[in-house]
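[audit] Reproducing an earlier prediction to check determinism. Same input, same settings, fresh worker. If the tokens differ from the archived copy the diff job will pick it up downstream; this log only records the rerun itself.
[audit] input (242 residues):
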Amino acid sequence: MRGWWREITGLVLPVACGGCGRPRTELCAECGAQLHGGAPRRVRPDPEPPGLPPVHAAAGYENAVRALLLAHKERGALGLAGALGKALAGAVRAGAGPPSGPGPLLLVPVPSSRRAVAARGHDPTRRIALAAAAELRRAGTPARVAAVLRQGRAVADQAGLGAGARRANLAGALEVVAGGGRLLAAGRVVLVDDLLTTGASLAEAARAIDGSAGPYGTGSGVRQAAVVAVSPSAFEINRNWK
């Protein structure tokens, strides 16, 4: 109900740019340029957690990009999902290269906890992933979302935890839902998230998927991940975003 209410109020109330607050537009040209204006780059955290696949990011987590992600995630600016999905699609494309091999790209979002989804009224990463898959298809790349991960146990809030504490907090926390292995065998897996900070979430997601191959297999495992933004605390392999 909360998600429906946000959708309705977004249609009838004045809007403002999620990045800078400029009235009468959900995303102004200047903030859009910060989100989409740079080429996606290969990034990695320092220290890098074991099992982290190569990650590409669309932008740095600062200024307008940070504000846009927070507006979508925490303030229910659901209309921003399309713009954020476009950025994520660019990061996916940068890591995947030209379409190759049978089957579509399978965008697997890192799951939020049920408590977080209930509090926000939506699942922001899944919503962005759906928009990214649609953007990829429009550009000629077969893609779909495979939301096959879930939290198998409760975890503490990651905010304020360092890299080692985040890894310990998430170790063994994610699992593939029943029947997920069969779905993952249909294409090439790409883990997706909104933000890369320490890499603990993506590394745990890769572990869960690679350990669930069963009789169906998942090719050579998770070979790629993509995020909308990378935290300044993460080391960028190429720091030039333009």
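[audit] rerun output stored. Observation attached for the diff report: The two ends are 41 Å apart (CA to CA).
[audit] end
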